[in-house]
């Protein structure tokens, strides 16, 4: 009986060690590394770009105190859509909500056809996801390529 209890206790401790040693879901890296990789790989089809600190971006006004760091990249050409946002936060849901509101309000014209079919596709195929404490939003014609690069860096 004692051997069974000791064996059970050893099994529980072993499982506890395995569970506690699990690797983190994402790396903790500065978002500037992500931005550099996107720019270095020339993944942004439209140049020049506006590069804004996420805390200064109008769509994040209500959640800027929840943002640790982040960036917003947009096309300076007002008829072409090219949005790439990456934010590190402890409140993923609030930041995602702010981006959903931005998409519903500010990107409505692009989704309705302003600037051409490419913009409609960029809005309809936009990506809003989170991984760990990173939230990213991509609305551009090569959104999947940019998402792959982001995931490659943080995973």
Automatic annotation (TrEMBL):
It comes from the Bacteria. InterPro entries: DUF4358 (IPR025648). This is DUF4358 domain-containing protein. It comes from Romboutsia lituseburensis DSM 797.
């Amino acid at each position: 009986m004692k051997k069974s209890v000791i064996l059970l206790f050893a099994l529980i401790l072993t499982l506890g060690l395995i569970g506690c040693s699990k690797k983190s879901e994402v790396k903790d890296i500065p978002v500037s590394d992500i931005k550099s990789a996107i720019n270095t790989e020339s993944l942004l089809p439209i140049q020049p770009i506006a590069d804004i600190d996420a805390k200064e971006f109008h769509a994040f006004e209500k959640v800027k105190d929840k943002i640790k760091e982040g960036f917003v990249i947009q096309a300076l050409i007002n008829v072409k859509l090219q949005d790439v946002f990456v934010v590190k936060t402890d409140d993923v849901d609030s930041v995602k909500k702010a981006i959903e509101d931005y998409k519903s309000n500010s990107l409505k014209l692009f989704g309705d056809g302003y600037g051409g079919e490419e913009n409609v596709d960029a809005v309809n195929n936009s990506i809003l996801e989170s991984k760990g404490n990173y939230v990213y939003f991509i609305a551009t014609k090569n959104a999947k390529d940019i998402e792959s690069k982001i995931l490659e860096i943080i995973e």
